[in-house]
Records
---
Amino acid sequence: MHAFILTHSSNAKSLQLKCKTSEQLLVGNILDNREGSFSQLYEMYAPNLMGVLMKILNQQETAEDLLQEVFLKIKRYLPLYDEKKARLFTWMLNITRNTAFDYLRLKSSKQSKSTIEIDVHHSELESFSHSVNTDTIDLKKLVLGLNEKHRTILELSYYQGYTHLEIAEELNMPLGSVKTSIRQAILILRGFFSLPG
């Protein structure tokens, strides 16, 4: 013979709470606005999410800024988190990656727009000059005489302030090839002036 024991509803609730994982409890505490719960989430996951941002962006300051943005998004969208679809860390990891890739797309879009605007106004700038700087006339012509790859890399590096890594990413080239191309272009220019290498 089997005996069935009816439990009081408060006992059933405490049993359910004990069955919940620490992640579920933490999410519940945050959603209930319990003091210190969001700070606990930050302390638990910020180092790992920062590592992901650094791997994607390779820029400490930008990664730190985006980490703050990531946690703002996590707080905003936490009510939509569904533990049946993904673990909490996986869900936060997706937000982190998407934030980083959105930043890179926006940065790339701004750079492309800037380049287009420079090209559009290039002819206007060529014809507009109050004075002539005789020291740069020949150098400008020499740079324009370089092949397109060398000219583009020099313009990105010296006129637009790109780092070698940013040039490699922008032109989809290996970093070593960028450095070699810059050296080759400088050697070609030095050759025009018969400067020692």
---
Amino acid sequence: MEKNNKEVYIGQYGRMRELFLKYNAPKTYREMKKSKELIPYLQHIDKIAAEMEEDLAQRMARAEGLTDEVKETDPQEWIGLMNNYRMCAREIVIKDIIEV
């Protein structure tokens, strides 16, 4: 997407939200696009969602007792568990923020 001939970065969550609006709330999507509110809105959603995903994954890891000690002693186990927590957090973010 472009704004004043400059590339504007919108991450995965912003793009997901854009597609959700485009196909599920086309009137809102067109109004936001026409009033130039869409890009700032998508950037905001992307930032909030990414922060929420990271926070949720970290809280899940702490709640399950995943520590830096595990990271040092069994890095593969740590990576696998963190990937699992991130995927769970991603699903929560999509349901709570993107598909609203």
